[in-house]
Write a structure and sequence with these properties.
Radius of gyration: 19 Å
Number of strands: 11
Length: 288
């Protein structure tokens, strides 16, 4: 095993026999969601434990969803300097309550490991760990590889990028990793059109999963920001990935973007007004 890498036994056995394994990021645990209880979630997910923190219960819900789909969930995190792929429930609970845990992008992993710190992994860091695991699979002759990664919204090109170049490392990481990234599009605070242009320049395939409009995380998206390709079932996504990586020989990623269910989606105009108000308040407070 590569130094500093630990693969959970369930994940290891799955990879050995070629089972489906889905990577899950953990920055949502340390920086994305609050540790407070969210009682109303019970109305959305009947299995949600209303006594648990939102960040912990969300990850539990993600893992349940993966298992119901017949795959093995592999939450990725750095704990005390060790990269862990697959966490048991007790480990997740302790990690979710650790207020010292930060978030780490791909460039931060070595520093966090050397300092023996704990951190949630972003999209770029999780994809880097998937590469580590796949090297281990190849070295040991295991049948499986980690090829699917599920997250919320990916990073991208920020607004006002022409004045202040701010582009997430997620984009390059996706372009350089043979993985299918299942997500709800990009984070809503980004310049969505510029992000799509960047993904095209990086030769990342962007699919709309049962949608013609590119999703924008909390909202379904704008009618005039469309995806170039639509797919309506998981088998079609898998077949496209197989051709993209196998037949064509691409080494980069594929994005399968799925919209938030309509009954939970914010209206796009409402979201834009909220973002505009937040940006104005930040500027007035001289927060960069």
């Amino acid at each position: 095993m590569e130094s500093g890498l630990r693969i959970h036994e369930d994940v290891m056995r799955g990879l050995e026999r070629g089972a489906a394994v889905v990577a899950l990021e953990s920055a949502v645990i340390t920086a994305g969601l609050p540790r407070e209880v969210f009682a109303k979630a019970k109305e959305i997910d009947g299995e949600w434990d209303v006594s648990g923190g939102t960040n912990f219960e969300l990850v539990r819900a993600m893992e349940r969803t993966v298992r119901k789909g017949g795959a093995i969930p592999a939450s990725v995190a750095v704990i005390d300097g060790e990269i862990r792929v697959g966490l048991c429930e007790d480990e997740l609970r302790v990690f979710a309550s650790d207020e010292r845990a930060e978030k780490a992008a791909s460039r931060d992993l070595a520093h966090v490991m050397v300092k023996k710190e704990s951190a949630g992994t972003t999209v770029s860091a999780t994809l880097a760990v998937m590469k580590m695991v796949n090297r281990e699979c190849e070295k040991r002759g295991w049948a499986g590889r980690m090829r699917v990664f599920a997250t919320g919204g990916i990073g991208g090109v920020h607004r006002e990028w022409s004045r202040k170049l701010d582009v997430s490392a997620d984009l390059r990481a996706i372009a350089q990793t043979k993985a299918c990234v299942v997500c709800a599009g990009v984070k809503s605070i980004l310049d969505v059109r510029a992000t799509l242009e960047a993904l095209e320049a990086l030769e990342v395939v962007v699919l709309g999963y049962r949608t013609d409009v590119f999703p924008q995380f909390q909202c379904a998206g704008e009618a005039d920001v469309r995806v170039a390709r639509r797919v309506d079932d998981a088998r079609s996504v898998a077949e496209l990935c197989e051709k993209h990586w196998g037949c064509i020989g691409h080494e980069g990623g594929v994005i399968a973007a799925q919209s938030v269910p309509a009954k939970f989606a914010m209206e796009h105009g409402e979201l834009e007004r909220a973002i505009t108000a937040a940006e104005r308040a930040a500027n007035e407070a001289e927060i960069s």
